[in-house]
Design brief:
Elements lengths: L10 E7 L27 H8 L9 E5 L3 H10 L6 E5 L5 H15 L4 E6 L3 E2 L2 H16 L3 E6 L10 E7 L6 E8 L4 H8 L4 E11 H11 L1 H12 L2 E3 L2 E3 L2 H4 L7 H6 L5 E6 L3 E2 L4 H7 L8 E3 L2 E4 L5 E4 L4 E4 L4 E6 L2 E6 L6 H10 L7
Parallel strand pairs: 1-2, 1-4, 2-3, 3-11, 6-12, 14-16, 15-17, 16-18
Antiparallel strand pairs: 4-9, 5-13, 6-9, 7-8, 7-9, 8-12, 10-11, 18-19
Helix pairs in contact: 3-6, 3-7, 6-7
Length: about 375
Amino acid sequence: MAKHAAKKALIHPVILSGGSGSRLWPLSRALYPKQFLPLFSDKSMFLDTALRVKGASFGAPMIICNMEHRFIVAEQARSEDVAPQVIVLEPVGRNTAPAAAVAALLLIDEDPGAVMMILPSDHVIRDTDALHTAVEAALLCAEDDALVTFGIKPIGPETGYGYICRGECWDSSPGCYHIDKFVEKPDLKTAQRYVDDDTYAWNSGIFLFKAKRFIEELEKKHPDTIAACRRAIDDGHQDLDFFRLDETAFKNCKSISIDYAVMEHTKSAAVIHVDMGWSDVGSWSALWRISDKDEHGNVLIGNVMANDVADSYVRTNDMLVTLLGIKNTIVVVTPDAVLIADKERSEEVRTVVKNLKNTNRTEHQ
C-alpha cells in the first residue's frame, strides 16, 4: 500500500505593526505611520503584508500593534476581508523579541506544535511567488527544529541593512543553510565586498519557526522576558476585537530584537536566500529606488510640473509643486508640512522628527 504524504503544517502569520516610520515624515506620522499608507501600491503596506500570506498554507493572521493604531488595523483588515485570529495590543514598545514571545505563547496554548511566521508590516515584496517558494523550503527546515530567517539577495552595496553570512547547507532542506555570522550595517567598501560574495544576504527581519522552539531558545538567555510575557497574557483581557496585554507586566520585558535575543546565540539558526523584490522602505531614497521612474529617473506623484529635473522623488497630495533645475532631491508636500532634502541624506529625516519633538511641535504626530 502506498504511503500517504505527511500533512503539511499550517503556518500562523504574525504581523508586527509597531513602527513609527519617522524617516518617511511628513507623510508618515506617529499616529498614522508608514505601514498604513499606500506608498508603493494602491493598498497600504500593512494590507499587502496580510494579503500575501492569505491562502491554504496559512492560518488567520495574528496582528500585534500598539494601542493608538488599533482601530486603523481593524478597519484596514475589514476593508479586504482579512479576519485576524486576534489583534494583540502592546501597551509599550519592547522591540520584536517580546512581541514574538507573546505570539508564540498564545499559539502554543491553542496548538503546542504551531509553526509561526514573523512578518514586519512595513515591507515591500514584489514577487510573492518567490516568497511562497522560499516559505515551503523554510518550513521543511523549521520542522527539523531550525529557526529560519529569510536572507535577501543583495542588489547593491546597501549600508543601511545588516547582513547574514551563511555556512554549511542544512541537510534536511535544500536551499537552507546554517548561519555562520550576523554582521552589523557595514561601510560602503565592506558592503560591496558582501555583494560580491554570494554567501552574504541582507537581513530581512522575516522569520519562520515552531513557536515552542522559539520559546525554548529565548528562555535560555532571557527567562525574565518569558515570565513577563506570560504575566502580561495572564493578566491581560479581551476588549471587543482586541486582546490587551497587561501594562505593568509587559513593561518588565527587556526591549530587544529577535536577532540579539535568540538568532545570534542559538545553534539552530538557519537562513534561506531569496530574491523576491524586497525592501523595508526605510527612507525616501529607498522608496525612490523601488518605484517606477520616468526617462529622467524621476518619481513624480500628484500635481507636479518638473523642468530639467533628474533622479528625484516628488510627491504631493493636492498642492501644485513646480520644480526647475534640480537633481537627486526629495520633495514631499502635505497640507501642514513640506520636506525638501538631498536624496543621499534622506536617512537623516528622523533627525527632523526628533527636532520637532524636542521643540514641542505637533507635526510629527
